[in-house]
Design a protein that fits this description.
Clc chloride channel, alpha+beta, CBS-domain, monoatomic cation transmembrane transporter activity, 670 residues, Cl-channel_core, transmembrane, disordered N terminus, disordered C terminus, 23 helices, 11 strands
Length: 670
């Protein structure tokens, strides 16, 4: 029995485990509901100070100062208080699950409610849901750490806390439960469904008992009387997939832009805040969360040209707020943007023919669900939350059709959601459902065996036997004089030939085994295993995706070695990063790309003398993730994730690699 198992409280005996987990989840739900109330109060207080009072005491141009003051304040909080609260909340939850077993520092709960309240209250174009999810998750994590619970319970409490926060802020217990399962946990395991939904119901009940129960975006009763509406919803779904891709890419592009600016962090925050304030001076509807404007769109009280303009200005304001260092959610902005695009689409149809789209606002509702379903990769959350916040379940069919098409179309371009794209770029892959297999994220390149130690088909059986014995190999690749791969000859086949008394000088040509269809070098090891099982072989040829040449072989044993090496590398890297962080807490992850003229291009990693304050964490190239072992050869266009401590040595390390920095990520390790 391990130490962690001995520390599990007695309540977590198998008999009482479901009751204990559910009880803790409901307690987390209470905090999630109260946190949502406190958060709203803090937003209102900040707004009264930075916006309302300012406008009463001076000219409207002072509105520009509100977001600037707010973003500068938040930048100071995230710089010196808790860096985890920078951004939009949910990625921090996923990162804690992926890297720290669900552990979130207690200070995140404190600063995680202050920083986004300041951002939103001062006019920043972000939402409430991400921070509230982080607040609930932080409490669940803290409670799990106090009780010394193992990771599986900690993960459940994180999901329960985030579900309670989302359920409370949207008055949507079903959608909140799906949020905890679909986005945070990424699975629908029976052991998780009950506690997560209990937390969501508890959070909603606590919130409603104090604040009252009402639909967040109540709409007039609609009737989908045109049966062609579902066909139009499919068209809208295709459009929203493209908009969702723009939204996801825009969030990362804006952060990259501000990270590249050679300015003090507070100056970047001030400039971003002034830009948002300038937009708000002319289009005040884009400031803050924007629910009143969304309600007008759903009530068909905004003309279609204004809907299109609001989409553009809200998109820009949200990108600037997040990129300049604001703290807040991206859930509500996605609903706003989806509603504006959907409303424009519906009004366009209405102007073509009123009988085709008698209720243009229905498309605004469907657009909200479709954009979130695509950009968050969460169709169940998107569908249920729009039905709950509008209170109109007669819209189920059109909303489902639009969200499903948008989700599937977005998948054709990328599987990264707005919550995981930044983590993926840092080498942190968030796996979902059936994807939770380590070898699914490792490429065939990781286990590739080059075509060394080959033999010609004219080689004798005796010579092949001798070569295998000397090399301690179970097979040899058979290559034609012109370079084509014929197949392999195995030790078992040679032994059988010798056992049957065949002439030892006879060539191996008759016993060469042809190989099946090759696997591409960029495919995953998981896919390679499927091929090995399908063809019932131990060896597969590997083909380069660009040149279509056979570049090597992959074997079952090679796949196992690559997996073991990856596991060992992950543990060893984690320990080294912790050691660097302990000696120098101010560390930074630097993602860099190796150019063609780098002095390290073509050199093996073991021949590169890195400074003591730098550690290569991961390498990504076109074929996928590569394990950076000693014999690893650095190539141009490789993307390296390097941990540097202290952060002030970042530029020295970049110059040592002769590379160009893509972006830096600060990281606190508890």
């Amino acid at each position: 029995m391990t130490n962690s198992e001995r520390r599990i409280p007695r309540l977590f005996h198998p008999t009482w485990e479901p009751w204990a987990v559910s009880g803790l989840a409901m307690l987390t739900g209470v905090v999630g509901g109260l946190g949502a109330i406190l958060f709203r109060w803090m937003i209102r207080a900040v707004h009264d100070v930075l916006i309302a009072d300012m406008l009463q005491k001076g000219p409207p141009v002072l509105l520009m100062a509100g977001p600037a003051v707010g973003l500068v304040t938040v930048s100071l909080i995230t710089r010196y208080g808790a860096r985890e609260v920078k951004g939009h909340g949910v990625p921090q939850i996923l990162e804690s699950l992926a890297l720290r077993g669900g552990k979130i520092r207690p200070r995140v709960g404190l600063f995680g409610i202050i920083a986004p309240a300041v951002t939103i209250g001062s006019g920043g174009s972000v939402g409430r849901e991400g921070p509230i999810a982080l607040i609930g998750a932080a409490f669940g994590s803290i409670m799990g750490q106090i009780l010394a619970l193992p990771e599986k319970y900690m993960s459940l409490l994180l999901a329960a806390g985030s579900a309670a926060g989302i359920a409370a802020t949207f008055n949507a217990p079903i959608a909140g439960g799906f949020f905890g399962l679909e986005i945070v946990l990424g699975s629908y395991q029976m052991g998780a469904i009950v506690p997560v939904f209990l937390a969501a119901v508890t959070g909603t009940t606590v919130f409603d008992s104090i604040m009252g129960s009402r639909a967040v975006l109540a709409t007039p009763p609609y009737h989908v009387i045109n049966h062609f509406a579902l066909l139009f919803m499919i068209g809208l779904g295709l459009l929203m997939a493209v908009v969702g891709l723009m939204y996801t890419k825009g969030l990362t592009a804006s952060e990259d832009f501000f990270n590249r600016l050679s300015l003090p962090f507070w100056v970047k925050a001030a400039l971003g805040g002034l830009a948002v304030g300038l937009i708000g001076l002319f289009v005040p509807q884009v400031l803050g969360v924007g629910y009143p404007t969304m309600h007008l769109a759903l009530s068909n009280q905004i003309v279609w040209s204004a809907l299109a303009g609001l989409f553009i200005f809200k998109f820009v304001a949200t990108m600037i707020t997040i990129g300049a260092g604001g703290s807040g959610g991206v859930f509500a902005p996605s609903l706003f943007l989806g509603g504006m695009v959907g409303g424009t689409f519906g009004n366009f149809l209405y102007h073509i023919s009123p009988t085709l789209a008698p209720h243009p606002s229905i498309y605004a509702i469907a657009g909200m669900a479709a954009l979130f379903a695509a950009s968050a990769q969460a169709p169940f959350v998107a569908i249920t939350i729009l039905l709950e916040i509008t209170g109109d379940y007669r819209l189920t069919a059109p909303v489902m059709a639009c969200a499903a098409v948008s989700y599937l179309t977005y998948n054709l371009f990328t599987r990264d959601s707005m919550y995981t794209v930044r983590l993926h770029r840092r080498g942190i892959k968030i796996l979902r459902g059936d994807e939770i297999r380590p070898m699914k994220v490792m490429s065939v390149q990781s286990a590739l065996e080059p075509l060394h130690d080959t033999v010609s088909p004219s080689v004798s059986v005796r010579e092949a036997w001798q070569k295998m014995t000397d090399l301690n190999r179970s097979f040899l690749p058979v290559v034609q004089p012109m370079g084509g791969l014929d197949g392999i000859v195995t030790l078992r086949d040679i032994a059988a030939a010798l056992q049957h008394g065949e002439n030892q000088t006879q060539s191996i040509a008759p016993i060469v085994q042809p190989l099946p269809k090759p696997v591409f070098s960029h495919e995953s090891l998981d896919q390679a295993i499927r091929y090995l099982s399908l063809y019932d072989v131990d060896v597969l040829p590997v083909q380069d995706a660009q040149s279509y040449k056979i570049v090597g072989l992959i074997t079952r044993s090679g796949i196992l070695r690559a997996y073991n090496a990856s596991a060992i590398h992950a543990v060893d890297t984690r320990h080294q990063v912790e050691k660097l962080h302990k000696n120098t807490p101010d560390g930074v992850f630097v993602e860099m790309e190796i150019p063609d003229d780098s002095p390290l291009t073509g050199r093996q990693l073991k021949d590169v003398t890195l400074s003591e304050d730098a550690l290569i964490v991961s390498v990504t190239r076109q074929q996928g993730a590569i394990i950076p072992h000693g014999n690893f050869v650095i190539q141009s266009q490789d993307r390296l994730l390097v941990y540097v401590a202290p952060a002030s040595h970042r530029q020295q390390v970049i110059e040592q690699f002769g590379s160009r920095e893509i972006v830096s990520f600060y990281q606190d390790i508890p």
